Amino acid sequence: MSLVRNIARSYRDPGGVVSQLARGDIREPQVLFFGLLACGLIFVAQWPVLSREATLDTSVTFEQRMGGALFAVMFVLPLLLYAIAGLLQFGLRLFSRSVNGLHVRLAFFWTLLSVTPLMMIERGMSAFLGAHPAVTVLGFVVALVFLYKLTAGLGAVLRLSSDRSQQG
Fold it and tell me: CA of 90: how far to CAs of 77, 78, 104, in Å?
């Protein structure tokens, strides 16, 4: 199934999408692609806000802000994502049986990728409205959707590892 269709479907059935991806022939380069694509979209989502900030405060140019955001989102964030995925895997292994690290990274990176459309809307609203209560509410909604999808995805990964351990 296509990437866009899977993202749209993950708003109805996040665990099912992660389960389908995990049951397929998924490899680390594909999981890394999901993470890097999410980082790229997060970087693009920052552009309107950076433009607004550069217009309001001319002491730092738009290009300087873009350079800082590029470094932070495209170089530092992927490293942090792998560290967080490692902590998630460690936590899951503490409270359950063995779980495949690739599947944990898949669930985490896919969740981040599938929430980026909402992040882009939130950042666009932030660029137009500034520090407005509606932007804050939408930010909380994005965080809750992320947590819901991550929980569903990790649940699907745990069920998959449980099914494989019962078969073997």
Answer: 20, 18, 10
Is residue 63 within 8 A of residue 140, CB to CB? The reply is no
DSSP string, 102-128: HHHHHHHHHHHHHHHHHHHHHHHHHHH
Question: Please, which pLDDT band fits residue 165 given cuts at 50, 70 and 90?
Answer: low
Q: How far apart, in whole angstroms, are the C-alpha atoms of residue 24 and residue 67?
A: 37
The more confidently predicted of residues 97 and 82 is 82
Q: Is 130 left (phi over 0), alpha (psi -120 to 50) or beta?
A: left
Its pTM surpasses 0.85: yes
16 burial type by CB count under 10 A (0-12 exposed, 13-18 middle, 19+ buried): middle
| Residues 104 and 16: beta-carbon distance below 8 Å | no
For residues 98 and 158, give the distance between their C-alpha atoms in angstroms, rounded to a whole number. Answer: 9
Handedness of CA 57, 63, 66, 67 (dihedral sign): negative
Angstrom distance (rounded) from CA 27 to CA 19 = 14
pLDDT tens per residue across span 24-60: 888 999 999 999 999 999 999 999 999 989 998 889 9
